[in-house]
Structures are given as structure tokens and as C-alpha cells.
Write a structure and sequence with these properties.
Keywords: Disulfide bond, Periplasm, Redox-active center, Signal. This protein is an alpha+beta fold and 220 residues long. It contains nine helices and five strands. It is globular, with a radius of gyration of 19 Å.
Length: 220
């Protein structure tokens, strides 16, 4: 009986998400890109890119909603952070983010930087200041940080992020890109929490679109 009840609840939930997907409209709650931007997933997972900037208060607010939202996602969905680069002033924070990744620093460091910029008013837009901050809070070696910050790998990742943002024709942040094809922002969705609801619906839309192809591949 318990298994039957759980199955029924899951079915109802799926029907609700599908109804939402049909309710939301392209050009209203989300935008469809004419040309898809690149995604990192090659294993069939559905990629959701969260586009952010450490200096954006709305990005900080959305960031606080993401952990709980991620727990509701199925195993076939992967959430990826992508720092925005609209021009040179945004480059340092993008390199900072990819330096954290390259050095294997966990999500705690990313959150600490967000809080330092948004709550403490620290700009952290100069490599030396970044190195001081990370050394102070996470015992990161300053020389290692600066070398990694200026490395080819970090700059290459930053260039990819720039290309993705440019390809998505984003005018502001935060934004979500689902499967490299659908873009959601607070204005079109109606708020930060609504962004995640629209993203849920679009994930289900992508899942339904991919189902026949995956079935055919399995059959083949």
C-alpha cells in the first residue's frame, strides 16, 4: 500500500509539472534561443546553468535558494554555475570563480565570497585582495592562488563563460539557461522563486523531448 501511495504521489507531481510546462509560454515566462549555447554535459543529463555575478544582490538572493531547490531535482539534472562577463570589469570575478574550482575549494568558499561582497562591501576585484581574503579565511597559499588565477586553464574557462553569455544574448543577471536552449530571468518569470518553478517546467519539457531519442538509442 505504501509503495502504491508513493507511486501515486509521484505521478500526481509529474502531472502537475507537465501542466506547468504547458502553461508557461515562450516569449513570456522564458526565451528560446535561436542557436543553442554549449553545455558541459555529455552523458545525457539535463544541464541548468545559473548565470551570476558576485556583485549582483539578486544573484546573491537566488544563490540562497539554489541548495534547497537542487534537492528537489532528479538525478538526470545537473546544475552548473557560470559567472557572467559583460566586459572587462566582470572578468576578475569570473577568474576568481574558476580559480576556486581549479584549486578544489568547495561551495563554502563561493558562499563566503558572495557574503563578503554583498554583506561586508568588499569589492574583491583585485587578485591581491582575493588572495588575502582566501588566505585569511581558508588558509590558501597566496602565491599558489595568484599563479592559478593567471593560468591558461582559468582564462580558458572564463572565455568559455563569456562565449556562453554572449551566445545567450543576456542583458542582465541572474539568469538560468536550461539545456543550452531556454533562458529564464526574474523579469520574465515574475521573481526569483518563480524562476525556479519555470526552470522545473522547462526541465520536464526537455525530458519529454529527449525521451523518444533515448528510447530509440536504447532499442538500437
Amino acid at each position: 500500500m505504501r509503495k502504491l501511495l508513493c507511486g501515486l504521489i509521484m505521478a500526481i507531481g509529474l502531472m502537475f509539472v507537465q501542466a506547468q510546462a504547458d502553461e508557461y509560454r515562450a516569449g513570456q515566462q522564458y526565451k528560446v534561443l535561436k542557436e543553442a549555447v554549449s553545455v558541459e554535459q555529455t552523458d545525457g543529463k539535463i544541464e541548468v546553468d545559473t548565470i551570476f555575478w558576485y556583485g549582483c544582490p539578486h544573484c546573491y538572493d537566488l544563490e540562497k535558494l539554489i541548495p534547497a531547490w537542487k534537492k528537489t531535482l532528479s538525478a538526470d539534472v545537473d546544475v552548473v554555475k557560470t559567472p557572467v562577463i559583460f566586459g572587462r570589469p566582470w572578468q576578475p570575478h569570473a577568474q576568481l570563480f574558476y580559480t576556486l574550482e581549479e584549486m578544489g575549494l568547495d561551495e563554502t568558499a563561493n558562499t563566503a565570497i558572495f557574503e563578503a561582497v554583498q554583506k561586508e562591501g568588499r569589492r574583491l576585484d583585485k587578485p591581491a585582495d582575493m588572495a588575502d581574503f582566501l588566505n585569511e579565511h581558508f588558509k590558501v597559499n597566496k602565491e599558489t592562488f595568484l599563479k592559478t588565477y593567471d593560468s591558461f586553464g582559468v582564462r580558458n574557462q572564463s572565455q568559455k563563460a563569456y562565449a556562453k553569455v554572449r551566445g545567450a544574448q543576456l542583458m542582465g543577471v541572474p539568469a538560468l539557461i536550461i539545456d543550452g536552449r531556454y533562458v529564464v530571468d526574474p523579469q520574465s518569470a515574475g521573481g526569483l522563486e518563480e524562476m525556479l518553478k519555470v526552470a522545473d517546467a522547462l526541465v520536464e519539457k526537455v525530458r519529454r523531448e529527449k525521451a523518444p531519442k533515448q528510447k530509440a538509442a536504447t532499442a538500437g
